[in-house]
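Need the bound structure for zinc ion, inputs here:
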Amino acid sequence: MKNGYIFLGAPGSGKGTQAKKLLDASGIPSVSTGDLIRSEIKRETPLGLECKPYLTSGKLVPDTIIVRMFKQWVETHAVATFISDGFPRTIEQAKVFDVLISQELGYTVTIVFFKVGLKTLKKRILGRRICPKCGNIQNEFFNPPLVSGQCDRCASAFETRIDDTEEIIQTRYDSYLESTMPIIEHYKSQVITIDAEQGPDEIFVSIRKQLSV
Ligand SMILES: [Zn+2]
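Answer from helper R.:
Posting the output first, comments after.
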Protein backbone atom coordinates (compact mmCIF):
# COMPACT_ATOMS: atom_id res chain seq x y z
CA MET A 1 0.00 0.00 0.00
CA LYS A 2 1.18 3.51 -0.80
CA ASN A 3 0.82 6.10 1.95
CA GLY A 4 1.02 9.86 1.90
CA TYR A 5 1.09 11.50 5.32
CA ILE A 6 0.26 15.17 5.42
CA PHE A 7 1.71 16.84 8.51
CA LEU A 8 -0.38 19.79 9.61
CA GLY A 9 0.23 21.95 12.65
CA ALA A 10 0.57 25.54 13.72
CA PRO A 11 3.98 27.25 13.57
CA GLY A 12 5.83 25.93 16.63
CA SER A 13 3.91 22.62 16.75
CA GLY A 14 7.12 20.74 15.96
CA LYS A 15 5.96 19.02 12.77
CA GLY A 16 9.16 19.91 10.88
CA THR A 17 11.30 18.44 13.65
CA GLN A 18 9.26 15.22 13.62
CA ALA A 19 9.49 14.88 9.84
CA LYS A 20 13.26 15.09 10.15
CA LYS A 21 13.32 12.52 12.96
CA LEU A 22 11.27 10.10 10.84
CA LEU A 23 13.62 10.51 7.91
CA ASP A 24 16.57 9.69 10.17
CA ALA A 25 14.85 6.74 11.85
CA SER A 26 12.84 5.16 9.02
CA GLY A 27 14.14 6.78 5.83
CA ILE A 28 10.72 8.24 5.02
CA PRO A 29 11.36 11.29 2.82
CA SER A 30 9.51 14.51 3.48
CA VAL A 31 8.79 17.33 1.12
CA SER A 32 7.71 20.92 1.62
CA THR A 33 6.32 22.97 -1.22
CA GLY A 34 8.53 25.95 -0.34
CA ASP A 35 11.65 23.80 -0.83
CA LEU A 36 10.21 22.30 -4.01
CA ILE A 37 9.50 25.66 -5.61
CA ARG A 38 12.96 26.99 -4.70
CA SER A 39 14.69 23.93 -6.12
CA GLU A 40 12.69 23.90 -9.38
CA ILE A 41 13.45 27.58 -9.96
CA LYS A 42 17.11 27.14 -9.17
CA ARG A 43 17.40 24.22 -11.60
CA GLU A 44 15.38 26.16 -14.20
CA THR A 45 13.06 23.22 -14.92
CA PRO A 46 9.91 23.81 -17.04
CA LEU A 47 7.77 23.99 -13.89
CA GLY A 48 10.31 26.26 -12.23
CA LEU A 49 10.15 28.63 -15.18
CA GLU A 50 6.35 28.59 -14.96
CA CYS A 51 6.57 29.69 -11.31
CA LYS A 52 9.05 32.47 -11.77
CA PRO A 53 6.77 35.25 -13.14
CA TYR A 54 4.39 34.79 -10.18
CA LEU A 55 7.15 35.09 -7.64
CA THR A 56 8.87 38.04 -9.28
CA SER A 57 5.58 39.94 -9.40
CA GLY A 58 4.85 39.03 -5.78
CA LYS A 59 1.86 36.79 -6.60
CA LEU A 60 1.03 33.37 -5.20
CA VAL A 61 2.03 30.41 -7.35
CA PRO A 62 -1.24 28.77 -8.54
CA ASP A 63 -2.26 25.55 -6.77
CA THR A 64 -2.28 23.55 -9.99
CA ILE A 65 1.41 24.28 -10.62
CA ILE A 66 2.31 23.42 -7.02
CA VAL A 67 0.42 20.13 -7.10
CA ARG A 68 1.98 19.18 -10.47
CA MET A 69 5.40 19.88 -8.96
CA PHE A 70 4.46 17.78 -6.00
CA LYS A 71 3.27 14.94 -8.21
CA GLN A 72 6.52 15.03 -10.14
CA TRP A 73 8.47 14.79 -6.88
CA VAL A 74 6.42 11.77 -5.76
CA GLU A 75 6.86 10.03 -9.13
CA THR A 76 10.59 10.72 -9.27
CA HIS A 77 11.18 9.42 -5.75
CA ALA A 78 8.87 6.44 -6.34
CA VAL A 79 8.47 5.87 -2.61
CA ALA A 80 5.86 3.74 -0.89
CA THR A 81 5.53 6.32 1.88
CA PHE A 82 6.14 10.05 1.94
CA ILE A 83 5.52 12.94 4.31
CA SER A 84 4.21 16.24 3.08
CA ASP A 85 5.18 19.04 5.44
CA GLY A 86 2.25 21.45 5.54
CA PHE A 87 0.66 20.85 2.12
CA PRO A 88 -2.21 20.92 1.08
CA ARG A 89 -3.19 23.73 3.44
CA THR A 90 -6.38 24.94 1.77
CA ILE A 91 -9.50 23.15 0.53
CA GLU A 92 -8.76 24.23 -3.05
CA GLN A 93 -5.31 22.65 -2.84
CA ALA A 94 -6.76 19.52 -1.23
CA LYS A 95 -9.16 19.01 -4.13
CA VAL A 96 -6.38 19.08 -6.72
CA PHE A 97 -4.22 16.95 -4.44
CA ASP A 98 -6.95 14.31 -4.16
CA VAL A 99 -7.13 13.95 -7.94
CA LEU A 100 -3.41 13.95 -8.76
CA ILE A 101 -1.96 12.15 -5.74
CA SER A 102 -4.77 9.91 -4.48
CA GLN A 103 -6.66 9.01 -7.63
CA GLU A 104 -3.93 9.11 -10.27
CA LEU A 105 -1.00 7.84 -8.25
CA GLY A 106 -2.96 5.65 -5.84
CA TYR A 107 -1.74 7.02 -2.52
CA THR A 108 -3.85 6.68 0.59
CA VAL A 109 -3.81 10.10 2.19
CA THR A 110 -3.73 10.51 5.96
CA ILE A 111 -3.64 13.82 7.78
CA VAL A 112 -1.38 13.88 10.82
CA PHE A 113 -2.61 16.81 12.86
CA PHE A 114 -0.23 18.21 15.48
CA LYS A 115 -2.62 19.55 18.07
CA VAL A 116 -1.15 22.14 20.39
CA GLY A 117 -2.66 25.00 22.36
CA LEU A 118 -1.79 28.66 22.08
CA LYS A 119 -0.33 28.75 25.60
CA THR A 120 2.31 26.14 24.78
CA LEU A 121 3.07 27.71 21.40
CA LYS A 122 3.69 31.08 23.03
CA LYS A 123 6.16 29.51 25.47
CA ARG A 124 7.93 27.62 22.69
CA ILE A 125 8.21 30.62 20.39
CA LEU A 126 8.75 33.46 22.88
CA GLY A 127 11.08 31.39 25.08
CA ARG A 128 13.32 30.41 22.18
CA ARG A 129 16.91 31.68 22.47
CA ILE A 130 19.45 31.31 19.69
CA CYS A 131 23.16 31.79 20.23
CA PRO A 132 24.51 34.02 17.44
CA LYS A 133 27.99 32.60 17.92
CA CYS A 134 27.64 28.80 18.16
CA GLY A 135 24.07 28.22 16.98
CA ASN A 136 23.00 26.58 20.26
CA ILE A 137 19.23 26.75 20.80
CA GLN A 138 17.70 26.89 24.29
CA ASN A 139 14.34 27.81 25.75
CA GLU A 140 13.62 30.04 28.75
CA PHE A 141 10.82 27.70 29.86
CA PHE A 142 11.91 24.21 28.82
CA ASN A 143 15.73 24.32 29.13
CA PRO A 144 16.60 27.70 30.65
CA PRO A 145 20.16 29.05 30.41
CA LEU A 146 22.27 28.50 33.56
CA VAL A 147 23.09 32.22 33.52
CA SER A 148 20.17 34.36 32.40
CA GLY A 149 20.58 35.63 28.84
CA GLN A 150 23.74 33.59 28.21
CA CYS A 151 24.44 30.56 26.02
CA ASP A 152 25.23 27.47 28.13
CA ARG A 153 27.70 26.25 25.56
CA CYS A 154 29.86 29.31 24.82
CA ALA A 155 28.61 32.05 27.23
CA SER A 156 27.76 34.50 24.43
CA ALA A 157 24.72 36.73 24.87
CA PHE A 158 21.56 35.25 23.33
CA GLU A 159 19.70 36.95 20.51
CA THR A 160 15.99 37.57 20.98
CA ARG A 161 13.78 37.61 17.91
CA ILE A 162 11.84 40.85 18.05
CA ASP A 163 9.41 39.90 15.27
CA ASP A 164 7.63 37.37 17.49
CA THR A 165 5.32 39.13 19.90
CA GLU A 166 2.36 37.57 21.72
CA GLU A 167 0.03 39.45 19.42
CA ILE A 168 1.69 38.19 16.25
CA ILE A 169 1.68 34.62 17.54
CA GLN A 170 -2.02 34.94 18.35
CA THR A 171 -2.85 36.34 14.89
CA ARG A 172 -0.80 33.65 13.14
CA TYR A 173 -2.50 30.97 15.24
CA ASP A 174 -6.00 32.27 14.51
CA SER A 175 -5.43 32.47 10.77
CA TYR A 176 -3.79 29.07 10.91
CA LEU A 177 -6.83 27.48 12.57
CA GLU A 178 -9.16 29.23 10.19
CA SER A 179 -7.46 27.72 7.14
CA THR A 180 -6.69 24.30 8.65
CA MET A 181 -10.00 23.34 10.21
CA PRO A 182 -11.77 23.00 6.83
CA ILE A 183 -9.01 20.58 5.73
CA ILE A 184 -9.48 18.48 8.87
CA GLU A 185 -13.22 18.48 8.14
CA HIS A 186 -12.58 17.54 4.48
CA TYR A 187 -10.52 14.46 5.36
CA LYS A 188 -12.57 13.51 8.45
CA SER A 189 -11.98 9.76 8.88
CA GLN A 190 -8.45 10.07 7.44
CA VAL A 191 -7.18 12.27 10.28
CA ILE A 192 -4.82 11.15 13.03
CA THR A 193 -4.46 13.63 15.88
CA ILE A 194 -1.14 13.82 17.72
CA ASP A 195 -0.90 15.42 21.15
CA ALA A 196 1.80 17.97 20.32
CA GLU A 197 1.79 19.47 23.81
CA GLN A 198 4.31 16.76 24.70
CA GLY A 199 8.08 17.01 24.33
CA PRO A 200 9.70 16.04 20.99
CA ASP A 201 10.70 12.52 22.12
CA GLU A 202 7.21 11.69 23.40
CA ILE A 203 5.63 13.09 20.23
CA PHE A 204 7.96 10.92 18.17
CA VAL A 205 6.96 7.77 20.06
CA SER A 206 3.25 8.44 19.58
CA ILE A 207 3.67 9.18 15.85
CA ARG A 208 5.53 5.94 15.23
CA LYS A 209 2.93 4.02 17.16
CA GLN A 210 -0.08 5.59 15.45
CA LEU A 211 1.39 5.44 11.95
CA SER A 212 3.07 2.04 12.45
CA VAL A 213 6.33 3.30 10.92
ZN1 LIG B 1 26.81 29.72 22.08
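Comments: Residues 170 and 197 are 17 Å apart (CA to CA). Residues 131, 133-134, 136, 151, 153-154, 156 surround zinc ion (CB under 6 Å).
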